[in-house]
Design a protein that fits this description.
The complex is a heterodimer of chains A (201) and B (351). With 201 residues, chain A is an all-alpha fold. Chain A has 13 helices and no strands. In chain A, helix 5 packs across helix 8. The longest helix of chain A is centred in the middle third of the chain and has 21 residues. Chain A starts with a helix and ends with a helix. Chain B has 351 residues and is of the alpha/beta class. Chain B has 2 domains: 125 residues, Glutathione S-transferase Yfyf (Class Pi), Chain A, domain 2 (Up-down Bundle); 189 residues, Rossmann fold. In chain B, helix 13 links the parallel strand 7 and strand 8. The chains are: A mainly alpha (201), B alpha/beta (351).
């Protein structure tokens, strides 16, 4: 394996994400994920900044990097202008590329790629009421069951253009637009990642 | 004299001619709010705003959940900007706060790294043959409503005042994290004292509740909500906020982020189901409105066209407090007046 720190620092976001961490811990104090999981953004910054290859690899193979909820509260509060949440995005990117994630995380990534990821390519949006199924979303309550059961009658009342042509919320996305999205995916690596995740299923 | 921190920073918000971009989450859960925003822009403020049919997702949910790479998101953003350029617009208005954060981040990266901008132009050209310009003005719809809040007030039929007591309504404002936490200088009042929603509330007669967890995330967490087994993270963070705001007895919550508004509504139902606990005195929950729903109600728009009936926490008691007139019989009717069966009632959350 080559130098992991150098690999991480090649990412376009790295220079802005990690400038010089002074280990003050404000990020951890404000972090919702640190309160809920065994996760510590201060330690993430410190581990990467120390350039200890073994420690970085251990971090990339751990589940802890998948705990961040991406709220970016850390970015707002860091007195040095670091963004631990951005470092997380870089660590996750290379953990996926190098196959460093464990079976549990891999299955989770596959599941999202096969649902919301597929939605983008098939209907042009990450989510759509037709695909937020009440049985998979009990937290949405009986009102969601009601809305999705009667959406053809209710959505037009809300000004939506449900599966219609032309502009408006919930309109049908024309195939020419979907084709361009798919082509962008092919040119920029999105399709390769999508296929890697979904074909592993 | 109280120091007004929010006043130290104001952002530039264009006057007119906007290109509107719809949102995955908003069109799913709040299509009436997108409709109301366009109506306010056109009918109340007489602004030109384009609703483009060829637009699509920004992929932001996939980007922050790590199943869409940066380069792909960046080029999808470029395609959306190319639609704006093609239509002859320069002012871009994404409906979603996640999208606003995504667009701001991509533009900032291009500014700092011109080679990356060139690579994106090349990628878009290769994939679609399209060209694009970076918007001259990139703002969230809540910025625009904030800017024109006094103009809108002139047309309002109601105020955020309890008609029984004459006192201002107590309002919890929740600003989506990606509105200003990633790039504080892009938000009105920056990230610590965002004034975007507080300004609307104060102008329209209400009182802002300043509670300890005011700036805490709603708990969306991207992958944490998308993965059913991780949703404990999401509900726990909203619960922390509800517990913190409960002693202040807010009349309602208003949010400028689609995820936040949806979660803070639906997690109240979930917590009621799990613990038979609500955060108001009477067991109905605290209504959660989008800023367009708040403005629309005060302008006298039909609450059932705004979509308040598809929230799980119902808003009739709030509307009664303000004195808003509504037709209860129209609540569960379709667009053509068709009578629909009523939804099932939750076990604990009163409706």
């Amino acid at each position: 394996m080559g130098n992991l720190y150098d690999l991480l620092s090649q990412d376009h976001r790295f220079a802005e994400a990690l400038k010089a961490c002074m280990n003050c811990g404000i990020c951890t104090a404000i972090c919702p994920a640190a309160e809920f999981f065994d996760y510590d953004p201060r330690r993430i910054c410190d581990t990467v900044q120390r350039k200890d290859e073994n420690a970085i690899e251990e971090l990339m193979r751990s589940e802890t990097i998948w705990s961040c909820g991406q709220c970016m509260s850390c970015k707002a509060r860091c007195p040095r202008g670091n963004a631990p949440g951005e470092i997380i995005l870089i660590l996750r990117k290379y953990a996926q590329e190098l196959g460093y994630y464990n079976e549990h995380i891999r299955e989770q990534q596959q599941r999202m790629a096969a649902t919301q990821g597929r939605n983008i390519l098939e209907i042009g949006y990450c989510i759509h009421p037709d695909r937020v199924l009440p049985e998979q979303h009990p937290e949405q309550g009986p009102i969601w069951e009601w809305y999705t059961s009667h959406i053809a009658d209710v959505a037009p009342k809300l000004g939506a253009n449900y599966h219609g042509e032309g502009p408006g919320a919930l309109r049908e996305i024309h195939e020419k637009n979907l084709a361009e999205i798919r082509k962008i995916y092919e040119v920029t690596g999105g399709m390769a990642l999508h296929k890697k995740l979904t074909e592993e299923l | 004299m109280t120091k007004r921190f929010w006043n130290e920073y104001q952002k530039e918000i264009a006057e007119d001619h906007f290109f509107y971009e719809r949102s995955c989450i908003r069109q799913t859960f709040f299509p009436g709010s997108e409709t109301a925003f366009l109506r306010m822009m056109r009918e109340e403020l007489h602004k030109d705003i384009r609703d483009e049919e060829n637009q699509h997702t920004c992929t932001g949910i996939g980007y922050h959940s790590d199943f869409v790479p940066l380069e792909t998101t960046m080029t999808v953003v470029a395609r959306l900007f190319s639609l704006m350029t093609e239509a002859g617009y320069k002012n871009y208005v994404p409906s979603c706060v996640t999208s606003f954060g995504i667009f701001t981040e991509m533009v900032e990266m291009w500014k700092h790294n011109p080679a990356l901008l060139e690579q994106t132009r090349e990628n878009l050209r290769k994939a679609t043959g399209r060209e694009f310009e970076i918007p001259e003005n990139l703002v969230h719809p809540s910025d625009i409503i904030y800017k024109f809040r006094e103009e809108l007030k002139k047309n309002m039929k109601y105020q955020l005042v309890n008609r029984f007591t004459g006192r201002p309504l107590r309002v919890v404002e929740h600003v989506g994290c990606h509105y200003a936490k990633i790039f504080p200088e892009k938000g009105i009042g920056k990230s610590e004292f965002p004034h975007v929603l507080a300004g609307m509330i104060e102008s329209w007669g209400g009182e802002v509740v300043d509670y300890p967890e005011r700036r805490h995330c709603c708990g969306f967490g991207f992958r944490h909500y998308l993965l059913q087994e991780n949703r404990g993270y999401s509900v726990a963070n909203s619960k922390k906020k509800f517990e913190s705001m409960e002693p202040y007895e807010p009349d309602f919550i208003v949010a400028n982020c689609p995820g936040c508004a949806m979660f803070m509504d639906k997690w109240q139902y979930t917590i009621a189901e799990m613990e038979n606990k609500t955060y108001d005195r009477d067991g109905y929950g605290i209504p959660v409105l989008t800023y367009e729903e708040m403005a629309g109600l005060l302008l006298g728009y039909d609450p059932w066209e705004l979509g308040l009936q598809i929230h799980q926490v119902q808003s009739e008691k709030l509307m009664d407090k303000i004195g808003i007139k509504y037709d209860p019989d129209a609540k569960y009717r379709g667009a053509n007046g068709k009578i629909l069966p009523k939804p099932e009632k939750p076990r604990f959350l009163k409706q």
